[in-house]
Amino acid sequence: MVIATSNRNPDREAEKFLFIRSLSISGLFYVSMEGRITEAVTGRLSELVEDHGLPVTVIGNAPYTPFDSVSIDHAQSAYHLGSLLRGSGRRSLLYLTKDPNDPVTRERTEGLMRAFERVDVAGSRGDLGGFSVIELPETDGPAVRQLKKLFRGKGRPAALLCDTDYESLASVRLLERLGASIPRELPVFSFESPNSTTLPNSSEAQIPPVLERVADLAVDILIERMRDPNKATVQCKVARRMREYGVREGVRLSKPVAG
Q1: Residue 142 contacts by C-beta under 8 Å, 6 or more apart in sequence?
Q2: Quick check: 52 pLDDT over 70?
Q3: pLDDT score for 38
Q4: How many domains are there within the chain?
Q5: Choosing a second label site near 10 at 20 to 30 A (CA), which of 21, 51, 55, 237?
Q6: Helix (H) or strand (E) holding 65
Q7: Is residue 168 part of a domain?
């Protein structure tokens, strides 16, 4: 499994690396959406490679623009990911996103289309010869059935792409708990904002158990989103439950999924 991230915070990158290592994931592709990887982050990546033997590839370098504006960076970063998949011979991609109509999502989709069109496999958004864009399920309805069908059939995607790191990890677990068969080697990519707070602050000694619970929490949040159509409450629930459970010992947050 491969997770791509563009978070510039070295401490959070350290947490993610240790979590990735604890899951026996094969490597990490570091994607710079803003085009500049800071010396601190680059140095921390080098230390982690040396200390833990985790292979890292840095890709990206789109022109710098602020994160608070929609920019060509999103499309170019998506293009880099698409090119990476194209170069590996992977001919299909599933993009799970909160809002397919969001301007940032549209730019990323355009970048993916350009990357796949270079090898004539893009087609329409629903064409698994190139890639599919599916909204993260808000209810247990057609989207869930579509996801189950995708991963149970012969045309299952060769890679999974999500908007954030925690959604990537959670989506894999969610799909498994929905009954989908997920190949262990499935590459999983994410776009990550430097302002995203998905992991609690903790010492290195606490990281593995804390992150295990955060992954379970992320699954619960996705399931909760499926059951609760009120999107506005989701972030509040995330923040509240992270405070309540994020660093407590012996708390298992996962719940069974009906159906």
Answers
A1: none
A2: no
A3: 42
A4: 1
A5: 237
A6: none
A7: yes
The amino acid sitting at 209 is: P
Token pair belonging to 195: 């302002």
For residue 232, which amino acid is it?
Answer: A
3-state secondary structure of 131: strand
Model pLDDT, residue 207? 28
Token pair in block for residue 165: 């790191």
d(CA 86, CA 119): 8
Q: Which domain holds residue 98?
A: 2-197
Is residue 165's pLDDT more than 50?
yes
Q: Which two tokens stand for residue 118?
A: 């270079």
Q: What is the widest separation between alpha-carbon atoms in the chain? A: 51
204-238 in b/e burial notation, b at 16+ Cβ within 10 A?
Answer: eeebeebbebbbbbbbbbbbebbeeeeeeebeeeb
The tokens 């087609």 sit on which residue? 123
- In a domain, residue 220? The reply is no
Can you name the residues that pair with 162 across neighbouring β-strands? Answer: 190
* Distance (Å, whole) CA 178 – CA 57: 32
- CA–chain centroid gap for 60, Å, is 16
**For residue 62, with 0-12 CB atoms within 10 Å meaning exposed, 13-18 middle and 19 or more buried, which class applies?**
buried
Which CATH number does the domain housing residue 128 bear?
A: 3.40.50.2300
